[in-house]
Each structure stands twice: as C-alpha cells, then as structure tokens.
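User: Sequence for MATE family efflux transporter below. Tokens please.
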Amino acid sequence: MGALYNIVDQIFIASASYLGSYGNAANTVVFPLTVVALAIAVMIGKAILLQWNKRRWYRYQKGLRQRDVADY
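Assistant: Structure tokens for MATE family efflux transporter:
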C-alpha cells in the first residue's frame, strides 16, 4: 500500500508545474526513509508484544493474576 501511495504521489508531483523533477527527486529520497522508519516501528512493536505475551504466559503457568505480580 505504501508503494502504491508513492506511485500516486509521484504522478501528482510530476503534474505540478512548479515542482517538476525537483519534487520527484525529493520524494524519491524521502520514500526509502519512510520505509525504514516503518520497519523500525514494526520491529519495536513486535518486540514489545512478544515480551508482553511471554510475561502473560509465565503468569498463566504460575496461576498468578496481574495484581499478584504487581503486589510482588
């Protein structure tokens, strides 16, 4: 979906007479940066989710509630 957005964005930027090739060049530089930022955000979110699920599984195995863990 992000790549499709980039393609449509390139078309609109190219049709603007005041931007032209400079606008397309800027978009070409920025798009990989947004992909990298998205990849880092997904990686961090996945790591947090895995840690949360691991702690939840350990609580379940011990028969504890979250309040018990917080009190400890």
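Residues 20-62 form the longest helix (43 residues).
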